[in-house]
Amino acid sequence: MSATVPQNETRLGVSAAIAAYTMWGLLPLFLIALRDVGADQVLVHRIIWSVPFGALIIIGRKQWPDVKQALRDPKVMIALFASSAIIALNWLIYIAAVQSQHIFEASLGYYINPLIYVLVGVLFLGEKLGRPQQVAVALAVIGVSILTVYGGKFPTISLVLAVSFTGYGYIRKLAPVGAMPGLFIETLILAPFALGYLLFFVPEAEQAFGTAPALTALLLAAGPITVLPLLCFALGARRLQLSTLGFLQFIGPTLQFLIGLIDGEPFTRAHQLCFAFIWIAAGIFAWDAIRRSRAPQPKPALQS
């Protein structure tokens, strides 16, 4: 029997993955529309409205048994408590970065995210870097160093986003729970804290929800905008090789970068040099991933 994924399934996987990364890449447009709302309130509503919308997806995909199984497993719940805290930090930093016109730094964080994954594999999983990966990491370090020294600014936002998202992905990879059930439980964990913060720490006069129909609709949309990309990603990840996903994932930060240009964010000489090195590193990384996926697999040893 061939383990090859049917062509129509592959096409569906590619379409779903492109949709996911495109939605993530266009997310700054949504956050720019909410610049008059504090990053804390945007985060709170993103969490709160993800719960009912996520529940609808869980019902539609008949995944309640997966949710119940995860809720009964203490090890899975410990992992999801940790991942929920990390993803909440990641979301808050990203929202604040976009609203304060630091979209380039946010984009940079997701360009270097795959390279951070590689370093995690080396440091914690005993993996070894191939020569192309070594070159890609070195170029990324040079790019970040140029922005730090020549630009006079350490890219804290970029590194926090990259490291936090890598940590989130690492924990979720170890936890035996699906993408949608996991996200639903994470938002369920965060929802009481989000609601409590909104009720007790945001003065009623400063609360944005309900002040204007358009603004209220945008905040309600934070739920679908959070959940739908992950659903598309889950559909794509099941049908595609990791090398294909690794190549497609650069759609997101590229769209973010273009939005930063349109938004009028200053693109300094330090940014230009930094991104040049990062783009070359990303290209080498993607090329190496595709090359590895096409390499012939070693035949299993014969049993004596």
From TrEMBL:
Belongs to the EamA transporter family. The chain crosses the membrane at residues 12-34, 46-64, 76-96, 108-126, 133-150, 183-202, 214-235, 242-264, 270-290. Pfam families: EamA. It is a multi-pass membrane protein. Keywords: Cell membrane, Membrane, Transmembrane, Transmembrane helix, Transport. Its main location: membrane. It is found in: Cell membrane. Residues 12-148 form the EamA domain. This is EamA family transporter RarD.
